[in-house]
Amino acid sequence: MGWLFMRSLGGHATPKAYIDAQFTYVRPEGRSRVLASRQVGMRTYYAAVEHVAVGAGSREVWGLVCLVRHNPRDREGYVFGYKTMSESMGPVEDACPADVLDLLTPTDKTFALDWRARCRARLAERRAVRAKPVPRPGQLVVFAAPIRFRNGRSFRQLRAVRLPGRARGLVFQAQDGGLYRIRGLKALDYTIAPATPPALA
């Protein structure tokens, strides 16, 4: 399905609420409702959509992915747009939250299985990143590969230090005394060197 753009959210407070409503309905052939949905990064909507067929009584919960564009100040007045994809279409977007994935019923559709596996793998990566230890002031951080900075210098080892007068935030000090900031530290491959025991008197 292509993009749909419109001039309002149809009385709904948010893009998420609008899309929830589009997939919640009762028709002669069956009923549909959104069991759980999340909007990730303001650009992507994920949902577990339940469909129950009338008569047959079959129940399926499938994954829905929507790309979202919301610009209340659009010059042409098209303030909201979205593009829907089912999991069986194999969406590229794979940041579906666990509480949505956990509601999906089993499937044998290849693209859907691949999409679910990619989402689970991404969740596992995020858990691993969150579990990484955060260096404390004074600890030596050893990187798997040298980190190159804008001044052309590169280092494999840097010591975490706190700037004087700052209660929060770390910088990293090289052996020559230079101080460096590292954004997205946890995304890098590093270990924290064990503390050196104090010398015996």
Q: What keyword list fits this structure?
A:
201 residues; six-stranded antiparallel β-sheet; alpha+beta; single chain
Structural write-up:
Strand 2 and strand 3 (30-40) form a beta hairpin. The model is unreliable at 197-201 (pLDDT under 50). It is elongated, with a radius of gyration of 24 Å. The strands form 2 sheets. The protein has a 6-stranded antiparallel sheet. Strands 10-9-8-7-11 form a 5-stranded antiparallel sheet, with no helix packed on it. The chain has 2 domains: 4-131, no CATH class; 140-192, no CATH class. With 201 residues, the protein is of the alpha+beta class. Helix content is 17%, strand content 35%.
Helix share, percent: 10-25%
Main beta sheet strand tally, sense and closure: 6 strands, antiparallel
Give the helix tally: 3
Q: What gyration radius follows from the Cα positions, in whole Å?
A: 24 Å
| Mean pLDDT rating | 90
Choose one word for the global shape.
elongated
Q: Name the strands of the widest sheet in spatial order.
A: 1-6-5-4-3-2
Instruction: Give the ordered list of helices and strands.
Output: EHEEEEEHHEEEEE
What is the number of strand segments? 11
Strand content: 35-45%
Low-confidence stretches: 197-201
The structural class is alpha+beta
End-to-end Cα distance, whole Å, is: 75 Å
Number of structurally distinct domains: 2
